[in-house]
Amino acid sequence: MRVSQYFQLERDQPSLDFIDVDVSTDLEIFVDPSTLRVLPGYWGQECQIMLTTFFAAVIGAIEKADRERVFELLGNLGEPNETHFGYSKGRSKGRGLGPGAGKSLADALSVSRAVQTGMLKDLEDTALLVPGIDRDIISDIATNVLRGALVGYTQRMAELFEIPVEEQVLGALWNPGSARWQLDHFGFLPRADGQPLLLVPKAIARHRLSYNYREYYRGYLLPELRNDELAANSSLVKVLKGGGRYIPEGDLRAKYPENKAAIVGYTEKHPEALYQYKEKKREAPAPSHHDFAAVTKTSSVDYEELFAAVEAVSPGNAGAALYHRAVMDLLTALFHPALTEVTKEAAINDGRKRVDIRYTNIARGGFFSWVSSHYPAPYIYVECKNYRADPENPEIDQLAGRFSRDRGRIGLLVCRNIADRVTMTKRCGDVAKAGNGFIICLDDDDLRQMTTAAVNGDKVDDSESMGLGVLKSYFDQLVQ
After folding, report:
1. Which pairs count as long-range contacts for 54-60, CB under 8 Å and 24+ apart, including other chains?
2. Model pTM greater than 0.85?
3. What tens digit of pLDDT does each residue of 203-252 get?
4. 3-9, long-range: CB < 8 A, 24+ apart
5. Which spans in 335-392 are helix H?
């Protein structure tokens, strides 16, 4: 039974920001620390600081041969069964960090030449350079270190979807300020199937980690090693009748075997290969709805059903809450993976104001990426107005009042029908010209158009470009 079923959320995976795991067993999915390198926003920065300080502390202790400190750091890594990530076929029980994990990790890192040479910079680098460390171990380490951030995320999702929580021991939490583990913390988390539940955002979850040593070896190191042999005119070089030179793939691989220990040596000769590989990985697209459906074994997104739920709500105050929910579900699905960490009725200005919906903007393509490269847009704000008539200046001013330099100046005003689009555009244009931010008004017809674009596969899955036409066209009108 999945989280959505267990807590009767009446939502499917596409409208959920977190992975909809089975609460009694594991999904073969993992926390990928490399995703945090391209995750903007406060939560992403918090996670980056946690991982960076932890791994720097481990490497520093190993370099100083401070075994006591190493075991203090690695000894608090347990099997994070609360996420239900991993390989377990029955009840979640973990396989990545079993008994003696701290000593095994310490031994592997202590003898690693990648550590000795300073080549190992980030946790995810171990997937390329340290024998015996694979995706399950890396995921478990990351989950342990990020536990505090994941607890906060889980609590926000529980509040958003009205999931009941109970006070319980949270386990060891990493404190990046003191670079120490803090033990015996109590806090509130959901419980499912008798066990604590820790939710993980889709933004940092992957079926396979981005870093893969075979991919790195074959795509980045082997070409450099081939060039070395050709430049030296070594015995591996064969000459064609026409004078061309080549090296048989098998001969090259025989001289340069594919294993992590050897890869460290190759990287010492060609450090630029590691840099290029890591830079390329920063551009890797996030998984689509289809990808997550395949991993979680759930149905893929049904945009038309989500839009139908919006359209089915009758305009007026009586349907305001239902409309708010339906719009949030549709937009969460439409704007995946560009927008994440959805918050309903988000408090700002120390709680003195609230906004209907807030998203964190992590777009790497499409409209939200484009707009964030030109204007402050770390968050995208949405106000929902289930009015029979057009929203007027008070509603526009309400949304503009949520903007700030730090929070961002981009928002969507979603309503049922805009009868006078010309006047609405002028009202929003006045806000933009006054330097108070950019408000894009969308009605049912616009949502229908965006839904149709998504159904037709307007590259929504791989480039986040869905909605670029509608959103960009309205945005352009604001700055004319």
Report:
1. 54/123, 54/145, 54/174, 54/176, 54/179, 55/122, 55/123, 57/179, 58/109, 59/109, 59/115, 59/120
2. yes
3. 999 999 999 999 999 999 999 999 999 999 999 999 998 889 999 999 99
4. 3/192, 3/197, 3/199, 6/192, 6/193, 7/161, 7/163, 7/164, 7/190, 7/192, 9/161, 9/163
5. 366-372
